[in-house]
Amino acid sequence: MHHSVPAIPFSSKTKSQCIIIMSDTSSCSSPVSSNASLSTPPSTPPNLYQNCISPGAKWVVQKFGGTSIGKYAVKIAGDIISDYIVSNKVAVVCSARSGSTKSAGTTSLLLRAASEAVGKTRSTSKLLGKKLGGEPLTGLFGQSATTPSTPGTSTPLSRPFLWENISGSSTPNEFTSTIDIIRQEHLDAASEAIQDIDIRLELEDEITRDCDWLKSFLFASQVIDEISPRSKDIIVGLGERLACKFMTAVLRDQGVDAEYVSLEDVVPDIEEDLDSEASLGQDFYDRVAVAVGERIKQCGARVPVVTGFFGPVPGTLLKQVGRGYTDLLSGLLAVGLEASELQIWKEVDGVFTADPRKVPTARVIPMISPDEAAELTYYGSEVVHPFAMEQAIRRSIPIRIKNVENPSGHGTVIHPDLEHLEPKDETSDSPVRVHPVDDRSNKLPSAVTIKEHILVININSNRKSVSHGFLAGIFGTLDRFGVKVDLISTSEVQVSMAIEIDRFSNKVLDRLVGEMGKHGSVTVHRDMAILSLVGQHMRQLVGVAGRMFTTLGQRGVNIEMISQGASEINISCVVEGKDAVKALNLIHHSCLQISSMGVGRAGSRLF
């Protein structure tokens, strides 16, 4: 099925480059000619641009967040991906669509629908007499998810097997209203972003079928009043499927030959028990990286649009990785394709020296180490998922954080540790060049961050001896409640810990405090914040800790707790929530030496 598409939205410069390249068969691909021989049908519909096929072209993996997909899909297709495929082979990974916030995004709505489906008793008579079924679609989304694309086909997009809506109930379930919200949001987005009527109608049909499938799935779950962890993985994975199908259709509408790729069945046969709670090992990640790389290479010159959800894993994907699994897949794909760069596209210009919404003088950091990026992520700055960073960095693949609203900006590069880098030839065409900084005497911290909504619990032992028993009891209680501690400070008879209060309900927190009371007297401080100063080799930066605490004390900011990590990457303290923004600005000015004049330093890089 061939579609008519509007004029290709390349700039005149890009078009002229493509015209010149057409005369060189070893260079990048161009729009397929409509005058091709009838005996050898073209591998793509006419007038669609493809990935660069030059032997020297390298892969670039581009991961787009849900908010970016929700707000800037047309810009991503027309200004970013279209530009990069001129000289690169691009693989696109999409998170589930979001509106203005994650809390109102597709993933949150899917989790809400799942919770609404269980715990209610419904009549099952209609379900038990209903036959499950469904026929595979034809057309743009008709190809099997596990079938590689082949030249000469006009149906390069794939879709999962769908069920009929089997509920047969005239009374709407609570979760159906939530799914209808998801459906309508995607239909509205398709109507706004896609001009070609055939592409839009096919996408709308696909959205409706996927949402009907989810209603059937949740109705079945409601009958047995249970949603297993693996079922929850599948439910959440629908968000990436919808986003990738939407993005594929937008790319097609913008003149790019895109192929939807579902990775739900790509995980190789695993010997591990799928119900195992053990952490995933590097061997597992290596096998997945190879499998996804091989699958994407089967797309040929088409631009693959890849789901972040990659099927069943031991212990379930949400438990093992969390909602950042799309970042992880991007890292694994970069490894499998031996990409020159992994790009994480957001709505900010890169990693800042502080949150620019709270610190007006914050600056973009041109280059940062993986350790620094991981610390910033942990203490409140969303950079990139640590698992994704680990996979890319261990293969010396740089990660670049870029802004969809400013595609020409340099962004922030997370480069591999210097001691793990091989020397680079000056003629190398690597997108990142790292120069070691031997003189640390002038080095400053890289960034300061704040993590709010923190609860501090202090426990003083009732017994002034047997410290090992006291500490064992405290840590045992934390383990039973599944508490993740952000900061901890210990002595022989006292433990202070800071935890993120949003992770637990008030009821659970009350029970936790009650259990802690068995080991000693307990005091609780609510509405606190963790202030963290981050930089490489912090222990060797003489006077930084003194300057940090002196600055806070002189300006009337009380410090509840102090901690310096064994990693030498950060110095952290706990302050009252009402002083959080004030403390952030004070430390940003005094320790990073960035003033309102607009010139300052972060780490060893001069702005």
Features:
disordered N terminus, single chain, alpha/beta, Carbamate kinase, 607 residues, six-stranded antiparallel beta sheet, disordered C terminus, 36% helix, globular, eight-stranded mixed beta sheet
CATH class of the domain at 1-337 equals Alpha Beta
What fold name stands as the CATH topology of the domain at 1-337? Carbamate kinase
Give the strand tally: 18
Mean pLDDT: 78
CATH architecture annotation name of the domain at 1-337: 3-Layer(aba) Sandwich
Which value, in Å, is the CA radius of gyration? 26 Å
What is the CATH homologous superfamily assignment of the domain at 1-337?
A: Acetylglutamate kinase-like
> So what's the overall shape?
globular
Strand content range: 15-25%
Largest sheet: 8 strands, mixed
Counting H and I runs of at least 4 residues, what is the number of helices?
16
Kindly report the spatial arrangement of strands forming the biggest sheet.
5-6-2-1-7-9-10-8
Question: What would you say this structure looks like, in words?
Answer:
Helices cover 36% and strands 17% of the residues. It contains 16 helices and 18 strands. The strands form four sheets. The chain has an eight-stranded mixed beta sheet, with helices on both faces. The protein has a six-stranded antiparallel beta sheet with strand order 12-13-11-14-16-15. The N terminus and C terminus are likely disordered. This is aspartate kinase. One of its GO terms (cellular component) is cytosol. Its EC number is 2.7.2.4.
